Amino acid sequence: MSSPASCAPALALAAGLLLAAGAGADEKKAELNVGDPAPVFQLPDERGSSWSSSDHVGQRWVVIYFYPGDFTPGCTAQANAFRDAMNKLTELGVEVVGVSGDSVRTHELFRKAQKLNFTLLSDEDGAVAKRFGVPFGPGGKARGKDADGKVVEIERAGTAARWTFVIGKDGKVAYKNTKVNPAADAKAITEFVGGAKEK
Predict the structure, then answer these.
(1) Among residues 10, 38, 86, 180, which one has the fewest Cβ atoms lying within 10 Å of its Cβ?
(2) Residue 147 is part of a domain; what is its CATH number?
(3) What is the pLDDT of residues 13-62, one digit of tens each?
(4) Which residues span the domain enclosing 161?
(5) So which residues are the catalytic ones?
(6) DSSP for the chain?
(7) How many domains does the chain have?
(8) What is this structure's pTM?
């Protein structure tokens, strides 16, 4: 049996690799908390265009919600709730972006099928999820219907946990929820930003 001491180098190496994977030039730790500067990042959207957080943060409140996968029941309910709340969120000066390990093509199918009115970003290797401290695991499969009602089967490269962040105009994390109720997420964000603007 290995002694604790003999395991120490391996544990140190593993910890170092995890830190290296999650570290970026604008952050020093993988865990992101309220009050911390939000990571600056770029990801492809559902059209394959590059979406850069630096072009949006500072202009308005930015909701970044990580979710497991397109066409799954909970994620569909969450996306539809944001879609239906978008008029109110826009009035409050909020922009919403959803992030998952799905491909650009899958995002395009999902966005059209659900008539979503906000951006979806593809984080297939989980690099951005990890920078936000969001757990990211193995991929998965899902089945749904596209905008024409045709059954589609998709496979995603990786699966992010369902966490939601709100980035304030100052570029810092204003809100973090690691126990998201999919159908109630949009309402919670609306109430949070509405309350914050009244202060």
Answers:
(1) 10
(2) 3.40.30.10
(3) 333 333 333 333 333 446 899 999 999 999 999 999 999 999 999 999 99
(4) 40-198
(5) 75
(6) ---HHHHHHHHHHHHHHHHHHH-BTTBS-S---TTSBPPP-EEEBTTS-EEEGGGTBTTBEEEEEE-S-TTSHHHHHHHHHHHHTHHHHHHTTEEEEEEES--HHHHHHHHHHHT--SEEEE-TT-HHHHHTT--EEEEEEEEEE-TTS-EEEEEEEEEE--EEEEE-TTSBEEEEESS--GGGHHHHHHHHHHHHHH-
(7) 1
(8) 0.84
